[in-house]
User: What shape does this take?
Amino acid sequence: MAKLRFDERVAREATLQVGASALILDEAGERVLLTQRTDNGRWCLPGGRTDPGESLAETCVREVREETGLEVEVVRLVELYSSLDVVVEYDDGNRRQIVAAHFLVRVVGGTLGLSDETSEAAYFSRADLEALDLMKHHRPRIADSFADREAAFIR
Assistant: This one.
């Protein structure tokens, strides 16, 4: 099981891992779709690693489909994350610095469901998020999604 490690410039010890995550809102644009992970039980945004030969937008669309059953299209880039202070540490000792594009997406088809990676999927209000066991590095992604900026953030 992977663990997150937070420390100043800890990514100097890591290799890069590129990926994408998705912000999916309900029809009113107020609640965020999150999935609960099967590996650690924590809630997170749909997303994951980029496969070779795949763009970041394609990664986002594929990961949403795999984890939720929903078909989405990318609306815009919300933020590009490349924090030097966060790494994912795997049981085998590998350390990865996450470089992730976070996209606002629109649902265009499919049916919300589960996968071998997700044990639950649900929409949550921003107030509900405070009480959730949410992946720590996804909190700023959600906050930035509601910051109402015209241009993408780069962190």
Remarks:
- The chain has a mean pLDDT of 91.
- The chain is about 15% helix and 40% strand.
- The domain at 3-154 is CATH 3.90.79.10 (Nucleoside Triphosphate Pyrophosphohydrolase).
